[in-house]
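Ticket closed. Logging final result for Ras-related protein Rab-15.
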Amino acid sequence: MVMSEASPNYRKYERIQHLNTRTHIHVDEQFGRRFVRNLLHAMAKQYDVLFRLLLLGDSGVGKTCLLCRLTDNEFLSPHISTIGVDFKMKTIEVNGLKVRIQIWDTAGQERYQTITKQYYRRAQGIFLVYDITSYVSFQHIMKWISDVDEYAPRIVQKFLVGNKRDEELQRQVTTEQGNKLAQSYGMDFLETSAFTNYNISEAFTRMTELVLEASRKEPDSDLPSSNDELNDTEPDQEQQYSTCSC
Ligand SMILES: Nc1nc2c(ncn2[C@@H]2O[C@H](COP(=O)(O)OP(=O)(O)OP(=O)(O)O)[C@@H](O)[C@H]2O)c(=O)[nH]1
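Final structure:
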């Protein structure tokens, strides 16, 4: 059909075309937004459960290196002290469940302890790390445990880690001593090496199993669920520093 540009029908046709185009854009935008939202949701839901774990222990025992070995399979030699707290994420599969863990690396230095203690209360599992070449760091584990008992939730899972197992010649703490201390507090225990990647994934997997077991035993406790959203900046954005040296 040929239409004159002057005819009222032509103007109507033009208007319909215009509306159609706008409607398409509108529908496409809506579809796009819904698509992106669904995609993000699906991506966000690539796990069944979320956990928060914490690494505690004296400065220099290797907490940051343990974390970097787990998440990035990296080892960095110079000791760059963590300032305040830092965290990394990792998804692991345990007993057929995809578990997303947020792991907080805390500064071992005394001066940051007011900040780091604020992070204890939201943890489901806490690693107490000492250095097998430093008897002092092992003795300090008792002090770290009493802090955990004071500030962390009752149900928190504790796990003792003796790091730097590769430094056998410098060893000051025997495996037996580590085992005994762990037993006396009812904790699991592993010696690790961030340097040689020894027992790292084993420690995190075992800790995840312990948290899962605890959540099954006490389903009403303040343990994570798949609906629990992790806030990357908690507990207070202003008090968080990024320090991971790896
Ligand atoms: N030989 C050996 N050295 C390690 C190992 N893990 C860490 N180190 C070294 O120990 C030093 C301290 O490591 P970090 O991971 O920074 O220690 P940290 O506990 O995070 O220290 P703060 O952040 O000060 O609390 C670094 O020089 C590391 O290279 C290990 O398994 N074996």
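Residues 57, 59-65, 77-79, 81-82, 107-109, 163-164, 166-167, 193-195 surround guanosine-5'-triphosphate (CB under 6 Å). No further action required.
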